[in-house]
């Protein structure tokens, strides 16, 4: 079932597919994979599916808690949700901007789809927050760089992707099974350049991939 968010923009949650009119826009995570930054072939399908099912349930519970609509949830979700609640309570100042925001961002004129787990004011800073129930991996710094650069700011004076990137903080919150969050700070300025490069590379590969099919060689 598709959610139409703005004119010409649709998101199919089942396929995790972003569209602008008839054009399919690559998701941020697909960009990292097709651009050659992340190789999931080393992770078993069973592990991915198991993590995906629990991860989706945890993300849903955290989102519903963010918007004050939390109801019943599976017991397996409980420690991870409590880790998120604990994180928010321990912040000196936590003010939600958006939760599970689905949109399309642009960096250097190239579009990509993104679902931002959480965007909030944390201790006075506009902060992109990535939630994970498993290990926080190096590519999450690059993923959040894309989110920080692509997501519009309330401050309209900051118009460039790099400006938006610099104006934000980025963190990953690991929601551990012991109910305790572990915060990972992503602070490398070069993360923006890595994301911009892999976004361009992924686009180049899509435009030219037909030349490298077996029947054309």
From TrEMBL:
Domain of life: Bacteria
Protein's name in the database: Uncharacterized protein
Protein source organism: Candidatus Acidiferrum panamense
């Amino acid at each position: 079932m598709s959610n139409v968010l703005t004119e010409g923009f649709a998101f199919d949650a089942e396929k995790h597919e972003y569209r602008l009119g008839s054009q399919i826009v690559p998701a941020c995570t697909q960009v990292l994979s097709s651009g050659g930054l992340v190789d999931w072939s080393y992770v078993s399908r069973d592990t991915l599916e198991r993590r995906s099912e629990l991860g989706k349930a945890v993300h849903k519970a955290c989102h519903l808690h963010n918007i004050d609509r939390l109801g019943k949830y599976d017991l397996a979700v409980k420690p991870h949700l409590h880790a998120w609640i604990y994180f928010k309570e321990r912040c000196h100042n936590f003010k939600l901007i958006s939760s599970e925001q689905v949109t399309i961002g642009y960096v250097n004129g190239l579009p990509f789809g993104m679902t931002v787990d959480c965007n909030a004011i944390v201790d006075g800073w506009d902060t992109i927050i990535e939630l994970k129930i498993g290990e926080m991996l190096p590519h999450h710094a690059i993923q959040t760089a894309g989110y920080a650069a692509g997501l519009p700011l309330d401050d309209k004076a900051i118009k460039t992707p790099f400006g938006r990137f610099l104006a934000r903080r980025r963190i990953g919150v690991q929601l551990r099974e012991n109910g305790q969050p572990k915060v990972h700070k992503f602070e490398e300025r070069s993360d923006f350049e890595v994301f911009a490069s892999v976004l361009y590379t992924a686009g180049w590969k899509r435009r030219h991939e037909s030349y490298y099919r077996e029947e054309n060689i």
